[in-house]
């Protein structure tokens, strides 16, 4: 059954609202749309103006899935499009856009690390801490603490968020004009320092079969890479969410504590813990400027 809802000045068609997307959690497409409507005031400040890559699950998390970068056929005329690197992306501009994409089965949103108007300049670097099995979330937490200590020593601000799986992402706000090459090099050097100080606990090894410890994936700092957006649900059995937390929260929560069911109330109580990511910081004291870098 199809119907049309009015969101601001946009008429958004909706369909199959009773389709179960997360069978184990008992959540439907209607629940997903309601989640995005509740979280939009918080996620908008982090997604607005960014190119969107989505992962679609038309039949739910138990069915087939695929990434989509190009604007889907039949997009409403009001959908904002940004052509970047030969790809016609949907640009996050309003709640109607998010609801329209979610209605198409877009369960996970991966907003770009750049604004569509300035695609050569990331607004933040990401330290992606990915534990190598059999390591898991608890090892990622310890790795995040070590990373926090290093950042504090270097007088840098980092903001952690749970990936919704076993990993942890730490965002570093960047100044205007910082390039992707510099952001990747910055995170590579931080990873090198962590590997040196905590041997066996961190790795920069790209080949999975050779990895030992928590992988610092500095290569995520590329315009071609995607990263799950803050506040985006995940295609996990429990419908977990990639959620920002305080450093002091890491010892007290598990990824399964933050779900499509629980996050709206959590965010209403705690506010946007990622607000600081929007405030640029500078790296000149480390030998990194917007235009050059040297080993620190």
Quick structural overview:
This protein is of the alpha+beta class. It folds into two domains: 2-119, DNA primase, PRIM domain; 124-225 and 277-286, DNA primase, PRIM domain (Alpha-Beta Complex), CATH 3.90.920.
Number of strands: 14
Which stretches are low in confidence, meaning pLDDT under 50 for 5 or more residues running? Answer: none
Strand coverage percent: 15-25%
The rough form would be described as globular
**Total separate domains:** 2
Q: What's the order of the H and E elements? A: EEEEHEEEEHEEHEEHEEH
Fold-level CATH name of the largest domain: DNA primase, PRIM domain
Sheet with the most strands, sense and barrel status: 5 strands, antiparallel
Kindly report the name of the CATH homologous superfamily of the largest domain.
Answer: DNA primase, PRIM domain
Q: Structural class, from helix and strand content?
A: alpha+beta
CATH architecture of the largest domain: Alpha-Beta Complex
Radius of gyration: 19 Å
N-to-C CA distance: 60 Å
Helix count, DSSP H or I runs of 4 or more residues? 5
The CATH C-level name of the largest domain is Alpha Beta
The helicity comes to 10-25%
The average pLDDT is 95
